Predict the structure of Amino acid ABC transporter ATP-binding protein, PAAT family.
Amino acid sequence: MENEILLKIDNLKKNYDNITALEDINLEVHKGEVLVILGPSGCGKSTFLRCLNGLEEIKEGTITFGNKGIIGKDVKWEEVRGEIGMVFQSYELFPHMNVIDNILLGPMKAQKRDKKEVEKQGEELLKRIGLEDRKKSFPRQLSGGQKQRIAIVRALCMNPKVMLFDEITAALDPEMVREVLDVMLELAKNGMTMIIVTHEMQFAKEVADRIVFMDKGKICEISNPNEFFENPKSERAKQFLNIFKYKV
């Protein structure tokens, strides 16, 4: 992790009519840092990630990415989403396109990059995750774990500076979870800046530089993994971990 601040969030608020989804979120994310966000379902974790990627409209607060603000009508979101990649729980692969065409689409359409260049990059990444032989397969021919790993490769081919992961193992069978988590661990070792929402507690402790605990749209606690899991500061975090009956 470096000292350079890549993302800075100040006083971020998000409301749906009269319901407060996020309240006074203040956070800095450093280059090369892995930030894991934990908290009960419905506490605002996924909404927060969607705000960072422009999928939710923000009317209060600021988000600074590098040296530019990314809130408002003038933001070129196609460009920003190339630099802030996001992988969802539901894979989001196009069913009528094979693996390599799914990977090529974003870089070629949004970034106007050369097909051969992107294809070479995609094939190298597929090899790294052990799926080089599936580049001509269609999503229906793949397991959930394979589809999720390919969704990660597709995002990486946009050459992002930050990766957002929104509970990407939640829909997977237990035996498929590890293969996806291993890809994320490899990204962490290679210095990728990541913000991860997960319920995989052992993985969170293993991969995180810092843990952010949220409840009811607020950040209740920020600490390193050992401190959080061994001696959480907030009473709400203690209750949360007790429900999980987490043991290291």
Notes: Strands lie at 5-16, 19-30, 34-38, 60-65, 68-69, 84-87, 162-166, 193-197, 210-215, 218-223. The first strand starts at residue 5 and ends at 16. The mean pLDDT is 92.
